[in-house]
Amino acid sequence: MTEPVASVLTEDLAQHAPERGIDQHVHLCQRNPEGSAYTCRPRVAASHFRRVTALGNPVTPFGRQHGDIPTHEGEALSAETVEIDDGELIRRSAHDPEQFAALFDRYAQQIHLYAARRLGTQAADDIVAETFLAAFRRRGTYDTSFALARPWLYGIATTLIARHRRQEERLLRALSRTGVDPLPEALDDTVARRVAAQGRERELAGALASLPRGHRDVLLLVAWEDMSYEEVARALDISVGTVRSRLHRARKKARNVLGDEEL
């Protein structure tokens, strides 16, 4: 998947910003020797756009750092950029593609964690690259009246994850059969920790695997990503009523496993 992503991205950059001195060298994500963290080198190193294409700092998988703003090669975001809402950044990026890089800084790590919990770290690297490539190419369709682009970006990522539905279900079913989690810490939220303490990871994994994809998407966006019903509706392009009904059914199935535990 890496080569098509990189080649399309270099084509886009060549079209949108040929005057910016884009260096079209492709680099791959590399795992640190100890295996506990990863470093994604920029797939396209660009003087004004390198942050759109890959994670620049080593981060520990699943190590949430809410409120942190990733920086790249020691370069911090300006105070002005931090204060601009997502919709305004996307609007500005129509004339200045560099502005779009700030969205990567804000959300790439979160989306990588979400994808890694569902598919594993290796697949998540590609999901992040493809998500921001697709978002960059579709930015002209974004409704800039929405200040937060997070639901939009998660919607793109979730659509891409759907292409790996069989892989996700295989991983969950493997856990349900063996009790050995192929995605370390993939269920590390509060509910899952309670389930783990009771030795019931296998049952929960089996319940998740058996859910229809749309129901699982809604449940995980709410439970893992703490999205509101309205945000999930935007992300998945469904009504709030559909979000409520899918979540109710998914929770009911999970509660059959967890008993009275809240999910």
TrEMBL record:
Key word Transcription regulation present: yes
Domain RNA polymerase sigma factor 70 region 4 type: 202-253
UniProtKB keywords: Sigma factor, Transcription, Transcription regulation
Example GO molecular function: sigma factor activity
Keyword Nucleus (UniProt): no
One GO-annotated biological process of the protein: DNA-templated transcription initiation
RNA polymerase sigma-70 region domain mapped to chain residues: 103-170
Stored PANTHER family: RNA POLYMERASE ECF-TYPE SIGMA FACTO (PTHR43133), RNA POLYMERASE SIGMA FACTOR RFAY-RELATED (PTHR43133:SF25)
Family: Belongs to the sigma-70 factor family. ECF subfamily.
Protein's UniProt name: RNA polymerase sigma factor
Taxon lineage: Bacteria, Bacillati, Actinomycetota, Actinomycetes, Streptosporangiales
